[in-house]
Amino acid sequence: MSDFLSESFFHNFNIQENIQEETGNLVSYIKGNVINPIFPDFPMELGTVLAMLVCAGIFVAVVPLLPLVLVLAERKVAARFQNRTGPMRVGPWGTLQTLADGIKLIFKEDFIPQQGDKLLFRLAPYIMFACSFAVFAAIPFGQNILVSDFNIGIFYIMAISSVIVMGVIMAGWSSNSKWSLLGSLRSAAQIVSYEIPLGLSILTVIMLVESLGMREIVENQSGGIFTWLIFRTPFTFIAFFVFFISAIAEVNRTPFDLPEAESEIVAGFHTEYSGMRFALFFIAEYANMFAVSAIGVTLFLGGYEGILPGYDFLGGLPGFVLKTLGLVFVMMWLRWTLPRLRVDQLMNLCWKYFIPISFFNILGTGIWGLIFKDDDVWSMGISCAIIYVCLIGVYAVAGRNLARRPEPQTSSA
Amino acid sequence: MTPEEIYKNLSDKFGDSILGLDTELAGDASINITPSAIAEVCQYLSENGSLAFDSLMCLSGLDLGVKEEEFSVVYHLYAMQHRHSVVLKTSVPKTDPHLPTVAHIWKTADWHEREAYDLYGIVFEGHADLRRILLPDDWEGYPLRKDYKEPDFYRGMRVPY
Amino acid sequence: METTQQTESKMIELKPFTDEMVVNMGPQHPSTHGVLRLELRLDGEVVREAIPHIGYLHRCFEKHSENLSYPQIIPFTDRMDYVAAMNQNWGFCLAVEKLMAADEKKDFAVPERAEYLRVLICELNRIASHLLSFGTYGMDLGAFTPFLYAFRDRERLLLLFEKVCGARLTYNYIRIGGVSEIIPMEPGSIDEQDFLDEIEGFLDYFEPKIDEYNDLLTSNSIFSERTMGVAVMSAEMALSYGATGPNLRGSGVDWDLRRDEPYSIYDRFDYEVPVAKDIPELGAVVGDCWSRYKVRMDEMRQSVCIVRQILAEGLPDGPVMADMKAVRPPKGEIYFRSEAPRGELGFYIVSDGTPKPVRVKGRSPCFSALSALQELSRGLMVADIIAIIGSIDIVMGEVDR
């Protein structure tokens, strides 16, 4: 079976060989520069394991801080949008508010419904939590800041993030509450549906790069802003928006936050959760948000590569984080501006618009690849020109219509 | 149309069922009707072109005192088209208060009749869903009756606290 | 041969169906505007039947009223529609005043200054009420920000109300025969001028904000998708269910008590009545959630217009309370309705000539409008129920009384 896979399906990427060869990731960096000089007598395999443990330690320590920051950012951003100041009391400018909230949640009663499925109820938050953090293993934060550069990186991310829906369904089912069940089923339908345009949009990128490895995708965009995949062809430009909107739907945020629509189904799948388990869902949500933004940046916005070629400050980490936070900010912006879609409208958007558009993108990207064999100045110039003209056209046709204010209606009498 | 004209119109049509026009007291004049005829009268009022009472503004039960023998049910009707209103009043004996429903003529009567049933115990015959509406389903007695004494306990909770 | 036929017929019989799921929405629910309980019979997400159960906020208004004198009832009317308490005060006072005026023996009239103050303060209260309705409607549909925008502006109105009567929510300001003088405002004094200037300042600030709200929510395409063409209430249905006020005008019936049966001094002002119309290019149908919502948005503008006219005229001099010894209406009965923000607020009062009424019935607009919910929601989705409840703008305090 594995032979079949490695020979036919993944004939370009032999998994075994690649693991042996890989040098540029965090594990090998730590192994080469930290572990080997300190413990020169270590057997090589043990050194690898040790390096992996160190990496895991770094991620376990650092990544959960992200939601902590993001929750605070979300509250501050929301406050800005709403003429408020947001949390101000705990710490300077309220910066320790999330920490205080976290401590509060830890000390709260851990409530498990009497009639619920207790095992699944306990398990669900961990599944969600684990999956949303496992995604970070394949995200290249910087040139050497990558836990594991597998040759099927993006495929792995898609697979792992699909498991999240399992956690949601388990949570909804085991709560033995109708609202939770309704929420989790909405979520299942939504995530499964939006996975399709998401995957198809990613496919356009893979077609251009001809690789599934995250690092290879990034290195393909190293020639400055116009080599970023979003500008490479007009079709990837569309694909980026399809990807981003689908990603918002994947992480259940407004306008697609139907699974946890508090005004309709109370809190959806986590209605019955309290204390630390609820916090885990919360952390997972924000980790997801960061993860999909990071994937978007990696695939379309040049990853850790800079706007100008040859940028190499701290392995590109600051640029990467900035770009990702930019996308996260857009998500927050949308959340605090837009109302929520209805379930059937959500499905309409996916099946009637995004999936056909995605197929069109794939077709277009394929044809583009046939016309422009190499990515050179010409192809990029033409691509950017088409994008520019199309944007102007769309604005001229639809922009004014969309922004029109309905007239006040008064009686004819 | 004034209440007098409507009264004349109704008594021509329904004869003895229309008991009289009450104009003595201050405020609105009301047309008294026998309870059994109320549904027919209302049907006529809503369908007749020159009357066209298309909205029931208010339907209230009424208990004027412990000594009275009867409850009253008061209908305030309004016609959007002709911009006239009328007050219908009907009295049902306290021992067996029942009269036909008008919920099939104006749908808003559905809840108003339920309220009158809830608070006065007036039974509207033919009402599809005559349940208590404001009070709990297992409440005993009808609070707006003048002889109502509040219970000491409701499900083990002291009521007058 | 036979067996294949049997299997074929069996295959036809297999229809996809789901078990009916009965869900309780409320009484504790974020968007039932109080404590409404809906018994939802769901087929998946589709609502087969939504049966409202009310009464969780029943505070025996009518029973209390029978044991209180007329002025003592006014604070209870505050607690009916606590969002537009000024209008509730006024509705009750109007009914009692009309009954008192029916007494030939006494000469009774509400002073001019009080009438102006009443219209001024009630129109501002209408704006405050519609602002709350706008904000919560946005929140019901998932947009949180409009809610806080609305509350930001409502706050300024509440401060104004606090200035005239000392309370922010339950005012007890409008009394039988005039308005309260707890915080005195001498005619022509600096206090009065300050108050009017502050209102003027608010109006100047507020009017452009209506456009901002429209940009934020009304013209939002997701909002339109959610509300346009949803739960269409025809004019006949609205009349039959006794839906009034913005709900009736949202169904295309050109009817406003302030204009059509003018009470107080409404006939002196020049304003228009917003009535919903079909907007085919947007997709709005008369009687849908969007139309009901839009009528409220436009009504705020008209209230601003009325208040501006009062400010231009200035408050007349004179007392704010009628000269009367006691509130003792003659023997008789009255039904009087006034245009509250949520529709026609009627009070049916039966008096036997004593200081206490025999019967007070509050005919609340929300009570009647809510009864239409069951028919409106049939066959829609769970999310639409929320949209309907928000668009008919109920306040449970008024429904349950």
Describe the structure concisely:
Chain A folds into three domains: 18-60, no CATH class; 65-107, no CATH class; 112-393, no CATH class. Helix content of chain A is 67%, strand content 0%. Chain A is built from 17 helices and no strands.
Inertia-based shape of chain C: globular
Q: Please write the string of helix (H) and strand (E) elements of chain B.
A: HEEEHEEEEHEEE
Q: What is the strand tally of chain C?
A: 8
The CATH architecture category of chain C equals: Orthogonal Bundle
Order of helices and strands of chain C: HEEEHHHHHEEHHHHHHEEEHHHH
Q: Largest contact between protein chains?
A: A-C, 40 and 51 residues
What does the radius of gyration of chain C come to?
A: 24 Å
The termini of chain B sit apart by 51 Å
Total tally of structural domains of chain C: 1
Number of helices of chain C: 16
Distance N to C terminus of chain C: 69 Å
Radius of gyration from the alpha-carbon trace of chain B, in angstroms: 17 Å
CATH level 1 class label of chain C: Mainly Alpha
**Poorly predicted segments of chain B:** none
Written overview of the protein:
- The complex is a heterotrimer of chains A (413), B (161) and C (401).
- Chain A has 413 residues and is an all-alpha fold.
- Chain A folds into three domains: 43 residues, no CATH class; 43 residues, no CATH class; 282 residues, no CATH class.
- Helices cover 67% and strands 0% of the residues of chain A.
- The longest helix of chain A is centred in the middle third of the chain and has 32 residues.
- The radius of gyration of chain A is 23 Å and the shape is globular.
- The relative contact order of chain A is 0.11.
- The N terminus of chain A is likely disordered.
- Chain B contains three helices and ten strands, in the order αβββαββββαβββ.
- With 161 residues, chain B is an alpha/beta fold.
- In chain B, strand 9 and strand 10 form a beta hairpin.
- Chain B has a five-stranded mixed sheet.
- The termini of chain B are far apart.
- Helix content of chain B is 21%, strand content 30%.
- Chain C is α+β, with helices and mostly antiparallel strands and 401 residues long.
- Chain C has a single domain, classed as Cytochrome-c3 Hydrogenase, chain B (Orthogonal Bundle), CATH 1.10.645.10.
- In chain C, 49% of the residues lie in helices and 12% in strands.
- A three-stranded antiparallel sheet of chain C has the order 1-2-3. In chain C, strands 6-7-8 form a three-stranded antiparallel sheet.
- In chain C, helix 5 runs antiparallel to helix 6 and helix 12 packs parallel to helix 15.
- The longest helix of chain C is centred in the first third of the chain and has 29 residues.
- The radius of gyration of chain C is 24 Å and the shape is globular.
- Chains in contact: A-C, B-C.
- At the A-C interface, helix 9, helix 13 and helix 16 of A face helix 5, helix 6, helix 7, helix 8 and helix 12 of C.
- Strand 2 of chain B pairs parallel with strand 6 of chain C.
